[in-house]
Design a protein that fits this description.
about 140 residues; mainly alpha; elongated; cilium; FlgN-like_sf
């Protein structure tokens, strides 16, 4: 039973770490300009924590099977209290992650709109993709140096 208590505490610790990462992500997404590399670092941390949490939960389920107990652990005060903290934090994390997803969607929409404005102008460029001037000159004369 002690192993399950420690496992739930470890799960709660990682979820609190995820809460910090989601807060950082939210601050970054609320800024006027999103720092791409910083967002990538946060995304990597979030992915790592989610993998750890998923792994710990898998071990928890195996431990429950061996000990023949099941969440919400109503017959075990310590387990029940920790489980209540886990479920409350889980709901908070879900809500914050959904909010961050909406913020990210807003930034993606904004970038797509900016690209849509820039694309027609890019087609009128004086230079081709190779960096050389296009054959149709604007002044009507071509000058070589």
């Amino acid at each position: 039973m002690e192993k399950l208590v420690k496992l739930l505490e470890q799960l709660l610790f990682n979820m609190r770490e995820l809460d910090i990462v989601l807060s950082d992500e939210q601050l970054l997404l609320c800024a006027g300009h999103v720092d791409g590399p910083a967002l990538q670092v946060i995304t990597d941390k979030k992915g790592s924590l989610l993998s750890t949490i998923q792994h710990l939960d898998k071990i928890r389920l195996q431990g429950e099977s061996v000990l023949r107990v099941k969440a919400p652990y109503s017959n075990h005060a310590t387990l029940e209290q920790t489980w209540q903290q886990i479920t409350a934090l889980s709901e908070s994390l879900r809500d914050r992650n959904q909010h961050n997803g909406l913020l990210l969607g807003y930034h993606l929409d904004h970038n797509e709109e900016a690209l849509a404005v820039l694309k027609p102008r890019h087609a009128q460029s004086l230079y081709g993709p190779d960096g050389q001037s296009r054959s149709n000159s604007i002044s009507g004369r071509r000058i070589s140096i």
